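Input record (one chain):
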Amino acid sequence: MNFIQVDPSKHNILVVDDTPTNLRFLAKLLNREGYNVYKALNGQMALMACQTASFDLILLDIMMPDMDGYEVCQTLKADPKTCEIPVIFLSALDDALDKVKAFSIGAVDYITKPFQFEEVLARVQYQLALKAAEAEILNLNAELEQRVKERTRQLESTNEALKEEIVERKQLQIKLLNMALHDPLTNLPNRAFLMGRLDEAIARAKQQEEYQFAVLFLDCDRFKVINDSLGHFVGDELLSAIARRLEMLLSEADTLARLGGDEFAILLEQVSDIGMATDMAENILQSLSNPFQLSRYEVFINASIGITLGDREDDKPEYLLRDADTAMYRAKALGKARYHVFDPGMHQEALQLLELENDLRRAVDRKEFIVCYQPIVSLQTGTISGFEALVRWRHPTRGIISPAQFIPIAEETGAIAEIDLWVLQEACDRLKQWQMRYRRSTPLTVSVNLSGRLFSQTDLTEKIATILTQTQLNPKYLKLEVTESALVENPDRAMKLIQKLQCSNIELCIDDFGTGYSSLSYLHRFPFNTLKIDKSFVDRIEQTREQGLVMAIIQMAHTLGMSTIAEGIETSSQFAQLQQLHCTFGQGYLFAKPLQSSAVLELLDSSPQWRSTPTGGKIT
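The corresponding structure, as predicted from the sequence alone:
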């Protein structure tokens, strides 16, 4: 299929994004390609720009303050002056509902952040070419009408030429329709085509009582790893190979579509029961388990599949696609390389999760978070040496929400970095107050967890220095805890950051030691001050084998010049055994649960001390 060539220098593109770095990045790269680029930081600026200048294409972010991208798009489509401008959404939102909504209000395309510029450029060129083709059709229609008028008197000689023009017009229309309804990479039907077929299937189910169909939503597992390691050319070649292999499993009546990226959807016709759909899913998983022989590489890929049945009760295709997508994500959560069948409870869970995510985005500004502090006890002296700062979310209607519920959402949305910095500020400020109130020969310390998202920020050391200056806290009393997952993405950069922090006299602790496959390698490579023994080891310390493993961990840490902290100490027996193994510090419910700051004062005022006895430990 040939695209109509367009001259970039003759096209004006408006980029709308409330993040200046994104704006500058896209503008710079599009300018380099020869386009005239205009920028807007918010929806109002974008609408004003569209009233004063003419644009051939708009790249529009969704999540912006005051007026989001959906509202901007609806306003543009309601205005005769701007309704014909193609709008491509650029957004970090990757939910099927967000994408469906984008297309329903008039967007021509949807690109998920983080994106590759090559993909953005290809889609921009595609939309401009499509617009140019439509203009060519209009010009061709006008030309045909004029020729008919001018050659009425020469009907016989003109008739043949007119037929040729009509044939060309039809061919061009067929090409444009094919471009609009098919994916250019795999030549499969695209989302728009599939939605039409789903509409037809829903209508047929309402008319024919025995008719039933199924929708399968397929997403490749770890496809990004292939793209990042082997390149996008290999990734595109793999997607085409996957498409061809899936086509071989389907009948002519079924529809296979590529929805975008590494997502595919299948409409299975004439399904008698769920067993037929699950059989197809198993066939797909079995087929994909065989390696793909590409031009330069042999590649292995798995997929997660969501399944939903359609019948006469369904009324909108986007709901079917949403339900299958929800089931697919459940399959991923259960371990990937499998299928899962949708049930209505999943939709309610998804809605609750979305509501929780929306509340989380506003929780920091609304001051809904609180910091609790769990004592860290010296196992040799039995006295409190410091505290670990632990964030809790006090939701206005749901009450206290467990970190296990909101921390994964915060990490996925990126809100965890802002939360971490807030916790760090609160903990440093509170520790400074305690140090001034309780004058001790060995001042109290505070340990604060750093997420991988915050740990990857290039200006982290500057932000920490600012907090320490504001709170007037001596850096040597601050301990930062990181997990090995925060080190994996860029070990060299992580090493430089750790060294800078330690040059500032800030101690570093590796958290959850022993729960990752490469913990030992990171322990030797990075200069940590403290090793934290995971609760899973402490829970089983009374078993001879586990006790030996804990002893080996403690001895290894001490050999490397590190202190040790045992997490989750709940019984006096665990306390006594860890003390005998010369573990440096411990924390857990035996000493205290995480406490609010007022309860910490009461605990410190009581000057607790835990002592070892033949049967365990006790407070004095």
